[in-house]
């Protein structure tokens, strides 16, 4: 639809896709959300922007975030856990194993691989990389990265293993709607910073895994934070 000339109200249960939020304003009687295609008004809003997006300041708030909340955003950090999935013509590893471990001379070099044979019946291995190693391979070409993982697998299972038919990788550090995978508490931050991040701004609530200190970095933590904010609105 064309951008709304006047703010519109979304029907209950409606999901608006394909719009990028640019500004969220809290007022005494409600909230106004501006996107790249229009504006909407409601009684309340729950912001679930990833910490990485909040740290970039890509969405403006009115009134401005307090120094207390902005300080928590600045102190907390967004980590990156990327995945490298290789599809093979057949499984050459133990089919009843969920995970394969590898101890490399280079710290962080694909230490864990998830096998999808047991859970999905598919000859797929998914390697996990994080930290400095993930940053190191971020700009590595796919072909080079695939060969690097294959060198590991040949060390583990021999040179005769088949070549993969396909590879898929994530680039969470480049995702403009995330800029990372999970929030974490680095040196200089405190678990209470996640509580501060969860504090509402007038009629604007904040949810997401980074706002749930007990279960940060998890899907259920994100879900629980959403239920928390919904309850906050209901209870007034």
**What's the total number of strands?**
13
Order of helices and strands: EEEEHEHEEEEHEHHEEHEH
Largest β-sheet summary: 5 strands, antiparallel
Q: Give the integer mean of the pLDDT values.
A: 93
Strand fraction: 15-25%
Classify the helix fraction into a percent range: 25-40%
Radius of gyration: 22 Å
Structural class: alpha+beta
Q: End-to-end distance, in Å?
A: 34 Å
Task: Please render the helix and strand layout as text.
Layout: E1 21-27, E2 30-35, E3 39-42, E4 45-47, H1 51-56, E5 60-62, H2 67-75, E6 77-79, E7 81-87, E8 99-101, E9 112-115, H3 117-120, E10 124-130, H4 131-137, H5 142-157, E11 166-169, E12 182-184, H6 192-198, E13 204-206, H7 219-235
Parallel strand pairs: 1-5, 4-13
Antiparallel strand pairs: 1-2, 2-3, 6-12, 7-10, 7-11, 8-9, 9-10
Helix pairs in contact: 2-6
Task: Describe the protein in words.
By secondary structure, the protein is of the alpha+beta class. The chain contains seven helices and 13 strands. Strands 8-9-10-7-11 form a five-stranded antiparallel sheet. Strands 3-2-1-5 form a four-stranded mixed sheet, with no helix packed on it. The protein is elongated. It starts with 20 loop residues before the first strand and ends with a helix.
Q: Descriptors for this entry?
A:
disordered N terminus, elongated, alpha+beta, 236 residues, four-stranded mixed beta sheet, 7 helices, five-stranded antiparallel beta sheet
């Amino acid at each position: 639809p064309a951008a709304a000339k006047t703010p519109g109200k979304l029907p209950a249960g409606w999901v608006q896709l394909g719009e990028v939020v640019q500004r969220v304003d809290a007022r005494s009687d409600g909230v106004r959300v501006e996107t790249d295609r229009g504006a909407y008004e409601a009684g309340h809003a729950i912001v679930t922007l990833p910490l990485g997006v909040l740290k970039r300041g890509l969405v403006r708030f009115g009134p401005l975030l307090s120094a207390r909340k902005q300080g928590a955003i600045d102190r907390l950090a967004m980590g990156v856990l990327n995945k490298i999935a290789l599809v093979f013509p057949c499984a050459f590893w133990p089919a009843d194993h969920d995970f394969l471990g590898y101890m490399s001379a280079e710290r962080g070099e694909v230490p864990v691989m998830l096998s999808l044979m047991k859970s999905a019946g598919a000859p797929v291995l998914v390697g996990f990389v994080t930290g400095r190693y993930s940053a190191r391979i971020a700009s590595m070409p796919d072909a080079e990265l695939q060969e690097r993982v294959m060198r590991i697998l040949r060390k583990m299972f021999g040179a005769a293993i088949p070549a993969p038919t396909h590879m898929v990788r994530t680039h969470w550090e480049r995702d403009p709607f995330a800029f990372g995978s999970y929030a974490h508490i680095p040196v200089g931050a405190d678990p209470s910073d996640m509580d501060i991040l969860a504090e509402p701004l007038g009629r604007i609530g904040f949810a997401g895994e980074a706002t749930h200190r007990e279960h940060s970095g998890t899907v259920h933590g994100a879900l629980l934070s959403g239920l928390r904010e919904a309850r906050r609105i209901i209870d007034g």
